[in-house]
Amino acid sequence: MKLDFTYDIQVGERIIKVKELSFTDVKNLCKSLMFRSDLNELKDVFNKLISGVCVENGEQLNILEKIVVLLNLRGLTFGKDINISYNRHNITIQNDAILAAFNKPINVIEFMHGDAIIEFGLPHNFVINQNNIANTVYESIISIKSPIYDLNFNKLTEKEKETIINELPGLPFNEIYRLICAQYENYKFTVSIIDNTSLFLFDESFLIFFKYIFDANYQDVLDLEFALRRFLHFNIVDLDHTPFPECRIMFIKFDKESQQKKEPNVE
């Protein structure tokens, strides 16, 4: 019997089911992040990572949900301590502290347009700015309620949302964009010890941060693979299906047992 184990991650009132990263997943992720700093490339890497671990229910994740999922995934895979070297000092940030700053309810924006109430939440793009105001509005819309109809947008594609919204006469995109930015401007986490560096919801800071905390040393990953194959007789199927943390635990236990066997018996 094959059981696909998943973790439940709660973001506000929503439960998101995610799968663990296997050894092969982590190895491929490290290769994907090597030498990459372009924001569009990083967006693609982390969107693919999220798509690979989330058990889909038909609804796309917004930016806050993506951040919470990735932070939880990082904790599950590499541990809850985030170690950063800064000015020749080693600094430890607790993963849970960042989660506490962002994993909170989303306050829906209600915008009156004629006789309709349009609800907006959060966009799903990792970085938003004034160059993509229209897309931000399309991504953020949740529903339109009027005396004669009630439309839910949660499972619509961006193209379908765009078609419907563009049929609304005189919708003030710039005003709605400013409302969305103002509503969530306090969603941030500041690391005072690192020159008050802050992680914000809408800018590139999280993409750069995720690259840093997910970018394990590729040589270390290869060394672990070599040890698993040579000493524990792992094959490609094992590496594809065994969660990365369990691979590390098994090798640590094997190494500890091997060291104990080497110690001379004292009688």
Give the SSE layout:
Elements: E1 7-11, E2 14-18, H1 23-33, H2 39-53, H3 63-78, E3 81-86, E4 89-94, H4 95-102, E5 109-113, E6 116-120, H5 133-140, E7 141-145, E8 150-152, H6 158-165, H7 173-183, E9 188-191, E10 197-200, H8 205-214, H9 218-231, H10 236-241, H11 244-262
Antiparallel strand pairs: 1-2, 3-4, 5-6, 6-7, 7-8, 9-10
Helix pairs in contact: 1-9, 2-8, 3-4, 3-8, 5-7, 9-11
Can you give the helix content as a percent range? 40-55%
Helix and strand composition category: alpha+beta
Count of DSSP strands: 10
- Count structural domains: 2
Mean pLDDT: 89
Ranges where pLDDT stays below 50 over 5 or more residues in a row are none
Distance between the termini: 48 Å
| Spatial sequence of strands, sheet with the most strands | 5-6-7-8
Helix count, DSSP H or I runs of 4 or more residues: 11
Instruction: Indicate the proportion of strand residues.
Output: 15-25%
Summarize the main sheet: 4 strands, antiparallel
Secondary-structure element string = EEHHHEEHEEHEEHHEEHHHH
Shape verdict: elongated
Task: Calculate Rg over CA atoms.
Answer: 22 Å
Explain what the structure shows.
The protein is α+β, with helices and mostly antiparallel strands and 267 residues long. It folds into two domains: 1-104 and 188-267, no CATH class; 109-183, no CATH class. Helices cover 47% and strands 18% of the residues. The chain contains eleven helices and ten strands. The strands form four sheets. It has a four-stranded antiparallel sheet. A two-stranded antiparallel ribbon has the order 1-2. A hairpin with a 2-residue loop joins strand 5 (109-113) and strand 6 (116-120). Helix 2 packs across helix 8 (205-214), helix 5 crosses helix 7 and helix 9 (218-231) packs across helix 11. The termini are far apart. The mean pLDDT is 89.
